[in-house]
Amino acid sequence: MHKAFRRFRPLLWLLLAVLALPAQGQSSRSLQEPGYRYYEIGDLDAPRAARTEPAMMLMGGGEWVPAAFAWWLERAGHGRVVILRASGGDELQERLYRDIGGVSTVQTLVFDSRRAADDPNVLQVVAAADAIFIAGGDQSRYIRFWKGTALNDALNAHVRAGRPIAGTSAGLAILGGYSYGALDGGSITSDRALQDPMGSAVTLDNDFLTMPYLSNVVTDTHFGKRDRLGRLIVFVARAARESGRPDMVGIGVDEDTALCVEADGRGRVFSNDDGYAWLVMPRHTADRLRDGEPLDFHAIPVTGVGSASRLHLDGFRVDDPAFQITADIRDGALELQPR
Prior knowledge:
Radius of gyration: 21 Å
Strand order of the largest sheet: 1-2-5-4-6-7-3-12-13-16-17
CATH class of the domain at 1-170: Alpha Beta
CATH architecture of the domain at 1-170: 3-Layer(aba) Sandwich
Strand content: 25-35%
Largest sheet: 11 strands, mixed
Order of helices and strands: HEEEHEHEHEHHEHEHEEHEEEEEEEEE
Shape: globular
Oligomer: single chain
CATH topology of the domain at 1-170: Rossmann fold
């Protein structure tokens, strides 16, 4: 338990009784500390999960998908979940604990500076997590606040230990080996990225989080609704140039949709409204990628992963694809053709 709570526990229990907050051993608490806010709900004295499995839940933003959470929490042993975010409050933990259910405790850390990412109390909370959920918001804050810190190391250690991790929207954007960091303060559109792929607004980041099967992957979110195929192709082209790897891959996930990945790299899609994960796999470099010029990038295979499909990340194969198209970009104009 967070050490600071031992001192405040009697007062907090009195307040809980007066306000008629949850009974039967279930409590809700919060704490403000330099650099972060902390919230908890549930029974922190409950034992940790007896068993967890490696698992990734890659959510495209929008509404949560209950079936995906059920899959993920089963692999977390229905134990303790820690939510990490850089804006907002305790509303996500309330929803996870009360509406989704199936967890013993949910703790939330809301960061407002880099200082908190080296705080021993923060690291203690993260180390005790059976599963970690990275919320949406502004991914540039995650990069600025966490990269190169003790928390960065703790997140990678969590995954190496075989414990589940998840990210939605901005939380998914940072899980790829390369990620769009939005470090220019905005969110670039496909049209702008295609016309100026080497411009300063295309801010890619790497050497941050290390996820299984995603070392050569750029992730993107809110995909179909915000027309992000063009910009993901730009991200892949740039990442291939910067890494020297022609095998860079893009994975975009629609809103209200989650791609859930097992320990062996098999992924399946859960969606509230027939959304997809989009696999962009050129296997060759861009035909023209130069400063001040629009992108030329020809014959890019794009595959849709639907609820009946299976994506194998150990080779990026798709069984029963929902669709297969070819993207062709000439002078920054994107055209799609069926395959």
